[in-house]
Amino acid sequence: MNDIIAFIKQVETLDEALQVYTEFKSKQREINWFEGDLLNALIDRFGKSVIACCAEAGWGKKARLEQIARVAKAFIPEERLSEISWSWYRAAYQASTRVEGETPFEILMKALDNDYTYKQLCNYGKGIEEMPEFVLVAQCPICETEYAMRRHTLIDGVIRCPVCMLKGEVSELGVFERKM
Q1: What is the CATH number that goes with domain 132-178?
Q2: 3-state per-residue secondary structure call for 66-127
């Protein structure tokens, strides 16, 4: 903690601190790739039991180590872009397990080319029944129109009555909430 405080006192601008953090995140991604490649090499040499041994040795939880190994195996080094978050690679890998005929890299590139949000990438290939549901049940306080809306993607912000909007009035119905 004292090292962090000393570092913050040395930086001249917020931009400088943010640049250092960006470099740190890039190095962290490199470490994930290295760790995944190392785990895969150990698995190839000694078998899958290596994961449990590494977990017991303090490398991390077994599920995390398995995940890092699977993601690293799914993307060849030429497909690993340092500016893309590890989470996006993980989500693309997971999406590839739900769809046939698309590699994790193809899914990742499709997501980036089409400006997917991270949430959209996470939901790629999911059936509608697997996606979260958001609901809004309300009655407009002005025109008294009743609404029961259901969506599988969240709309941020307050929803307004479209009937009142056509009349030039503003009436708020509420916000979508995740159905439990």
Answers
A1: 2.20.25
A2: HHHHHHHHHCCHHHCCCCCCHHHHHHHHHHHCCCCCCCHHHHHHHHHHCCCCHHHHHHCCCC
Sequence ranges of the domains in the chain: 1-74, 81-128, 132-178
Please report the pLDDT score of residue 145 as a whole number. Answer: 86
CA angle 128–87–27, rounded 5-degree value = 175
* Residues of the chain falling short of pLDDT 50: none
**CA 154 – CA 133 distance, rounded (Å):** 8
pLDDT at 175: 77
Encode burial over 96-115: b for 16+ CB neighbours within 10 A, e otherwise: beeeeebebbebbeebeeee
Summarised one tens digit per residue, pLDDT across range 56-109 is: 999 999 999 999 999 999 999 999 988 899 999 999 999 999 999 999 999 999
Break the chain down into helix, strand, coil percent, rounded to 5. Answer: 55, 10, 35
